[in-house]
Amino acid sequence: MKSDILHKKEYHVDWGDIDLNKELKLSTLFSCFQDVASEASEKLGFGIESLDREYGVAWVLMKIRVDLLKNPKVGDTISIETWPLEPGKIDYGRDYIVRNQQGEVMIRAISSWVLMDLRQRKISRKGTVPIQYPASLKERAIDEKLKKLKAEGPLDESYRKMIGYSDIDFNGHLNNSKYVDYILDCFSVSEHRNYRIQSIEVHFTNEALPDETIVLQTDTSASEQSKLYIEGFNLDTNKTVFKSKLIIEKR
């Protein structure tokens, strides 16, 4: 890959980063993805502060799929590589590969981002910000498109969650890593002990703001095929906030 477009950063998995299985928490991984994407965008001249100052927009994650070949464990040092794709009509693709110290691929991820107008709280159309990259990469971490997600059976309410101070980010809305915690809290501790997530895909459909209540709903009708579907519904706006699909396997 061309070094001017590829960005790489190392992370050490500490005790505060792990779950009950002593493996890197998925929400922590999502935070790392956000961190390395921010650094990569900054390097290319389209960082958070400059986009806000010059255009009044911010990067917002819309879709992401993460395939976990192997879970990083406490004490591991991992490297995350990321690179952008050619911009679409309104979306900006970004891929990730996570490797261990031996260079083996542990995790692959693909994602889609948009620019949000911070005053109007709407997606900014292409052309508002003249984003151009110094090089183009055709390589994909996962050679698939992020298609629509939908439930295959009835949705059952798991629990409700009011969004508080600790859930929001600098854009003032529910942070993408928190969605992951909400999703995984739909399942019991014993289920997390007995099963691992092979793949997670999340589509963020509407903003969720402080003091709003999210109803978490699950569809387990395809669980025998190791597939689970989770959806978040905003009780205050009557809008779906996110849709997600998990593929699981026994430990």
Topology:
Elements: E1 7-12, H1 26-43, H2 48-55, E2 57-68, E3 77-84, E4 92-99, E5 105-117, E6 122-123, E7 156-162, H3 176-184, H4 189-194, E8 195-204, E9 213-219, E10 227-234, E11 239-250
Antiparallel strand pairs: 1-3, 2-5, 2-8, 3-4, 4-5, 5-6, 7-9, 8-11, 9-10, 10-11
Helix pairs in contact: 1-3
* Distance between the first and last residues' Cα: 35 Å
Strand content: 35-45%
The class by helix and strand makeup works out as alpha+beta
Summarize the biggest pleated sheet: 11 strands, antiparallel
Would you kindly provide a written description of the structure presented here, covering whatever features stand out?
The chain has 251 residues and is an alpha+beta fold. Helices cover 16% and strands 37% of the residues. The longest helix is centred in the N-terminal third of the chain and has 18 residues, at 26-43. The protein is globular, with a radius of gyration of 18 Å. The two termini are 35 Å apart.
